[in-house]
Every structure is written in C-alpha cells, then in structure tokens.
Amino acid sequence: xxxxxxxxxxxxxxxxxxxxxxxxxxxxxxxxxxxxxxxxxxxxxxxxxxxxxxxxxxxxxxxxxxxxxxxxxxxxxxxxxxxxxxxxxxxxxxxxxxxxxxxxxxxxxxxxxxxxxxxxxxxxxxxxxxxxxxxxxxxxx
Length: 141
Description:
Structural class: mainly alpha
Oligomer: single chain
Order of helices and strands: HEHEHHH
C-alpha cells in the first residue's frame, strides 16, 4: 500500500524526515544528528571558478564537524549562517524564497555545468557576486 503525505509547503525536508525517524527510534537507543555543512572545497566545486572568491571549508573541517556531531550526539550542527537561514525559513518563508531566488540569479551556471571547459569561457565577477563573497567571508570568518 502506498500513502501520500502532503505537507503544507511542499515535500518534507530531509531534516523533517530525520526528526520523525529520531522520534520513532529514540526508545531503541538510536540517535540521529543533522549536520548542515557549508560548501566544501572538493573536486566537484573546483570547475566553478566563482567559488574561488568564497570561504569554502576544507574536507578535513567538514569531517571534523560530522565527527563532532557523532561524538557529542548533537541533534543539529550548523554554522551561524545555517542557523540564521533556518530562523528566516521558520519565521518568514517568503523572505527565504526571495533570498534563494536572488542567490540563484547571482550565481550563473558554471562552464562545466554548461558542458564547456574553463578555457572556453571567462566567468566574470559581478558586483552582486563580489558583495555576496565579502558577506560570506564576514559570516564564516
């Protein structure tokens, strides 16, 4: 049998599903942690040259965050920016959608995403992108 569950604002988030599972399995001694990682400097993001301007975390730091959540049994581990984003989503979902829409507008598709090599195209930094990168350095700094 299949059951469809409709949530008011669309599909349930991964965090909501984990929250349900955490409640179901808590009595069995099984714990869940949600780790909201910022963008990690990996080979996958390397072709997107725009990210060279942003304070991406190193894979070792991401691994440390995951290990910290496991060792300390944190229910949720997030950066200050992640917590702020959750707060905005909770209180002002329309503002969150506007911010996300603007972010998608500011970040163009990379050459790699368009099937081009880095030498085929020059990715230019817009004033909006420079401002966003500066803000991220302050928030993550």
